[in-house]
């Protein structure tokens, strides 16, 4: 080993532009290395030891990257916190992750300070990027400490919190491997190598979603360790993405299908304005992508679109452009180091083509939900685990997703998968976004409800609802049609594209016992 890993690359070429902030500020690798080194020395001065944790409430950009680069060479766990959370939710994660230091950005100071109060962390362990009244600036913490490489370096890890769709979020904690940080970073590069991504400073990786998501940190961090320049977006915007790709000759990124839908909605003259010839590996995940949407992206961007299915807990599948085109709609085949198992309610394997709960395992990947042995065990089947998704394998081992178990609708005893209906509706030109779920029905147990965010400039009306339903003729069995359509100004999505379906569903179920 020995040619990859940010710390090695930065020492060899301190002038390499390793990161570009959303405001266009460029950061040399040598400067980021010096900042990360100083931070390690300063926090060790406060008594932090390998195995301890730090957490950060910081927007996308170099400041958060410095926290990551410090923790990953000092043997600490780094927990980036979702900046959409409220004070008590932030405080819960700071306390639960046992953070020995908490970093907050001025932009998120209000909820961040409520989180500090809630978590009980001592005030001398809280530091601010930018001016926050009563909080010590990070620059003051690191002042006077050397920028030399720390002694006794050992690989740390990120500890992300799952989005908590069931109860409180849980930290996914992996044992530390005790390796040299650069060697550990080089091992991580297998993830991007699976997609065919190559190292080299001619590459740039565009960060399109918030860095507190596991995949965003993994793909961005790994691209950096391969010598790619990280280009950060602050807020997702379709034309801004094209502008950044053209300006920085972006070769790879990590996206979600909602991004594709919004890109395709751009006027043709805008699409033609930007040179996208540098794109090589545009990877997407996190939600099913409607087949027509993906065909349209292939037509526009060419064969640079890769898809995968995975979970924070480890294991997954990969669909290459070639594999997907032969099996449209698939999320791919198992990674070389991963295995898939599809089982029925009795946890018995199901035949090819039959939907069941998807279990996965990854060679050498062990994890536990921090402080929740029971939850860890409950989602396991021997050494496989599940996140509760339903899907099936075709004869060639390609996985197709149906839906999350929690979202499945049981109407008149028939299992109905909302994702299938959403995919059909999503291609309607007057629909910007759509969610389908079950609502109470005396006779059938549940009936199908569609909530639609109309495309810009389209007015909601009973006529529009009728037109939308009518578009399903001949494409979807009548029993899968929504019984009614409601309209919404904006769909409640997390910035990573994950739909907060329970926010939509819960009001319809008030006063009812769940039928399922």
Mean pLDDT, rounded to whole units? Answer: 90
Strand ordering within the main sheet:
2-1-11-10-12-13-14-15-16
Shape: globular
Rg, alpha carbons: 23 Å
Question: Roughly how many Å apart are the termini?
Answer: 52 Å
Assembly classification: single chain
Supply the CATH class of the largest domain: Alpha Beta
Examine the secondary-structure arrangement and name the CATH architecture of the largest domain: 3-Layer(aba) Sandwich
Under CATH, the topology of the largest domain is which?
A: Rossmann fold
Going by CATH, the homologous superfamily of the largest domain would be ANL, N-terminal domain
Number of domains: 3
Which stretches of 5+ consecutive residues score pLDDT under 50? none
How many distinct beta strands?
A: 28
**Computed structural class:** alpha/beta
β-strand amount: 15-25%
Number of helices: 18
